[in-house]
Predict the 3D structure of the following.
Amino acid sequence: MNLSMLGFFKYGNFLLQNFQWLLARVGIIYQPPHLDILLPVGISFYTFHSLSYTLDIYRGVLQPTKSLRDFILAVSFFPQLVAGPIVRAGDFLPQLLHPPRLKNGQFLWGLALMTLGLFQKIVLADTLLSGSADRVFGYAGPLVALDSWAGVLAFAGQIFFDFAGYSLCAIGAALTLGFHLKDNFRFPYAAIGFSDFWRRWHISLSTFLRDYLYIPLGGNQVRPFRAALNLVIVMFLGGLWHGAAWTFVVWGLLHGSYLVVERIFRVSFEHKPWASTLPIRVLAWFATYAAVCVAWVFFRASDFTMASRILGGMFGRHPHGDAILSTRELLQIGTVTAGLITMHWAMRDNTFETAVMRLPPWTIAAIGSAMICAIIVTQGSSNAFIYFQF
Amino acid sequence: MPSSISSFKERLRLPRLFFRKPSREEQIHGGPPLEFERPIPPAPWSGIAIAVTIVVIVATAAWELYCRSLGYGPTLNDNEDLWTMKRRIVEPESIVVIGDSRAWFDVDLDEFQKGFGKRPIQLAMAGSTVLPALADLAEDKNFRGTVICSVVPHLFFAPPGSPPMDRAEKGVKRFHNQTPAQRVSQYLGMPLEEHVAFLKPDDLSLEGLLNQLPIPNRPGALVPPRFPPYFQTEDRERRARMWEKCAEPGSELAKRIQQIWIPLFTPPPPPSYIPKDVFFAQMNEGIKKRFADVTAAVEKIRSRGGKIVFVRFPNTGGLKELEDRITPRERTWDPLLKMTGAPGIYYSDFPDLSGFNCPEWSHLSADDSVEFSKRLVPHLRDALNM
């Protein structure tokens, strides 16, 4: 029922278009009625919220709540309603058993997380990166390698700061109200390998897919070919969840195939002594980051023509293509990307909370002041969060 | 469980996990054994909050004072929401000014009110092409008023997808789709903009400041030309007035803006990925289509009893030379009047409208705009048979 609602609203036109295309291949001209469907805001998220409730009760790991109010609040809690994180009923409902109480410092820590989230969104994503990414992905001609890579790196940074920023705002807003949401990102651009990446990127989605799809399909407790197929199926559906377009499907399939290749490597080389040496780890990190960036091309591109143009530029197929980014934009992208990766490496095995605990109070105050001043000077425009569309 | 359901599950190969009996700890809604709680880092949060508040207030005040010392003053910023506010008050018989920044700077609403007995509504938009606003008025079945339409050919014929077209379409779209949040945001933002000088997104935002860094670009890089810095104030009626610092004869600011207009009005080279002959053929087709679309819109407005007049506002110096060369009157203005059959006023055809000096070559100073508007009104009345 939940999924059929999502199917109708989000995938109705997509399915009809593909059905029309298939019929045209066998010579049947069919003109489907255009469904002028208005996509309800956050439908993907509250579908998954309610799905987790239903499935957990079905599995017996959660007792049905007797309170309609609690159920509605769990499914539509406003901070995470429109763009996640996906909060499972099992994580949220127990918090409603007693009226929320704020611990000492909880309200201000919540505000601090919201400030960091807004800084990531307004200053880093929207001001320093999104303009360059939009220009590269909106350019109709061939681009030289430098501009193509710069545009893709800019988008890689933009989507992280945009979505991680929103997640922090949601977590912070919930904290100020006395509710606790789990982390949705854990420094993903320091991931070594793709399974590591998915343990750090959009954690609420990847764990949802793992627990409700991958493990029920058999997970890795089946024969190798079936386990690989399971990974591809899960990532295919994960891609499709992001949007009704084949570009998202290819993005998901790419990640599925990355995971399969990683598994093959792991089985073959995991126990070799050189496999855990520093150069190999750095090489594996670099390969992971580069491959994730290549996949982002399909996520951002509106069609395959655009995607192939950008990929062509990245891999040197347009040596005489155009250069469209200013030196200032290139420096901006380089600086922010280097800072992002350095920060993720520094925090790789850490959490925000432990990092903040180690800082002297004046440093926390200085960082907080700098972020708020930067937000004020930025005079943010009104760019919506990318994940609002999902 | 009925056997039919059981076999259904088997056939579907429903996950084994679903059938595992959960441990007592996993049955979480009955109690909180697995309840998740975020750690709160121990720190003197109240003291930190007070320190941050003080630092931010002091830094913001210092930034405001610094911006004022540079000559910036509080004024409204032009945006789609302010445009929408004015578009909403258009009535069936309104006098509406549309077009580009020349109509925005050079029309004085007080003088027009004196001349027409009715206050016009300013809907001209800087750096925009006129078609979206004109077509929108044409589609508005209630509208049968008077349209005063500025023509700067370089902007008038801007192709779809270009910044002038995007800007104009954004305004019209916002008028039709404005959300309550955007509306409230505009009402809340206006008093702030009227009192805070540093709220200048083009000049004093982080992006604006980064844009001003003098970093040379790669040779051949197709980087968009820079836009002029802040040089006008705007009120709630969207009346733009040139900043006095720019209007001073021979001012540095005016000279800087003059040098920005030249690359901004110079057509970019054809894109490398389209053969030149194909590109120029597409451009010609685009211009023909623009004539046709404008003509259709004009006819619609006139068919309901509305009136329209095209106006070419003054330009001077190197910009006039450039415009006359790349968009000569015979290829732009004359065919426009001929195809639409609408009256037009080209400032240089009338001695009393000629001779005005545009300090930065494109717009009149605030004082001159009053005098120019006073002199323009009788010509408009003649052209419109009013």
Remarks:
- The radius of gyration of chain B is 29 Å.
- Residues 44-72 of chain B form one domain.
- Residues 1-20, 25-34 of chain B have pLDDT under 50 and may be disordered.
